[in-house]
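Lecture notes, unit on protein representations.

Consider one protein chain, 263 amino acids long.
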Amino acid sequence: MTVFDWIVLGVLIAAAVVLVYFVAKQWKKMELLDLKAMPKAKLKSKKYELIEGRMMRKGKDATTKVKGILSPVTASFKKTFDGMYKRIHELERKYRHATPEPKTQEDKEKTRQKVSTLIEQGAKLYKEENYGEAEAIFLDIIRINPKEVEAYEYLGEVYLEKKEYDHAIETLEFARGLNPNEDRIYYDLGMVHHSQGNFDKAMSYLKECVELAPNNPRNLNALLSLAIEIKDRFVAKEALRKLKESNPDNQKLGELEQVVKEL
């Protein structure tokens, strides 16, 4: 190893010692912060789960990089570092993401405006396919207001685009629990299950989606496309009929009608 390598290693070791000292000193205080015992535990639990999931993914990347730098160090030091990281993460899950709920009407209005602004920013990033930054913003919204259904919807769509299907399903199912009458949630769930090849579940969700918003061409197109794909002639004919009624100017109707006839 070069002199520079030894200097870098020394700095990292010193930082680790200081960090361990700080955590040990603050441990008792942090143990008192049991946020999961607070009211509305289900919402907060989901908020922590989503935020911590992202933090853990980022943390794993950071740990990998650090391990690469510390490769010349003994195995015992690596074990100590890993244990320290886990302990710090346990502390962070108790206090890092807590946001007090607004009490006054003025505070509530400020929170509403902030959330609205963040939704617009996140939606813009999502459309630009900047999924990493979009995910961070939607998680921030959930941290501020764990009841913000639109943030869960967008977050589910972000995970769908990133092909993190389990995270997408979990997030969208939670959003469905908050608002079971939002057709967009069922549409997204249908898309996720379709991407996984779970056509029965995809069909079930898309049918519910169409029931909630029967005149939405996007929903009908999705149901029709899936019915054609799995050769369900009955569902395809019904979806096509509704599509003609809701979007008679669709230039692909003739082509779609021919495809359905050939099923």
